[in-house]
User: What shape does this take?
Amino acid sequence: MALGMMVDGKWTTEWTERDTSGKFNRMPTKFRNWVTADGSSGFKAEADRYHLYVSLACPWAHRTLIMRSLKGLQKAIGVSIVDPILSEKGWAFSDAPGAIPDSVNHTQYLQEIYLKAKSDYTGRVTVPVLWDRQTHTIVNNESREIIRMFDTEFGAIAESPLDLYPVALREQIDHTIDAIYMPINNGVYRSGFATSQAAYEEAVTELFLALDDWEKVLGEQRYLCGDSCGNGIAARLTEADICLFTTLLRFDSVYHGHFKCNLKRIADYPNLWNYLKDVYQYPGIAETCNLEHIKRHYYMSQTAINPNRIVPKGPILNFWESHDRDRFN
Assistant: This one.
């Protein structure tokens, strides 16, 4: 159960993402190469060339699984799924229900993948990881960039023509992803991993102010991007929705209690709650969601927050119940 990192290729359980004021400061991802349709980057979009390493528990990795599903890339891009509970050496592969072993590099721990890419690697060992089977290296471990690649560079391979980054909305999509990242996507972690009252209160206040704002936006349109930018383009599902969805999905089960984000539940926001159910029910998304992995990971891995590792039985949530978002059609 280790929130550790690599230093010069050696594993350590020292964790350096908190500053002296108690604030959580996420370390940047290190592998930022790009797969392109024409191969000009050195990484050409090809079937059976790339492999995705993910956790079903992680909201960042979950984004990539959703995009892989929505674009119909399951046959073209293989996947390995780590055990939901962190080991003493970080993410590990196992035969736990829902996990899929590493069939490409045959490793036991995800850190081995990082070392294959860079033997003296220093940084966090995180998911998702996009691995190139041809050059035997990590292409990218930044979720926002991986979903963009899957969405825009794999068109010739994808079985679905769905476009979640349409040209007319690109500026708004990028702005929205930026706007939700710090207060919401990262905000739940800034709240949960804070080690001072002041750092916690700053983060949790920003989180709920942002949720309040998006509750208002979603009272006017079905999805995050479209109508509100005044260009007459109807709101539609985009990459921005995927980025918000994976945080909202985990909120009431984990972040509300475990991370003390408890001013409200998502279920207490009429628009956000119905929006969450709407996106969950979008074809290809529900099958990527696993609340058991989510709850077991957070409550059993993060022992500094939950030392007894007890996983709560609730809450009872039904993402399949009817929603009211059809009113915007």
In short: The longest helix spans residues 197-217.
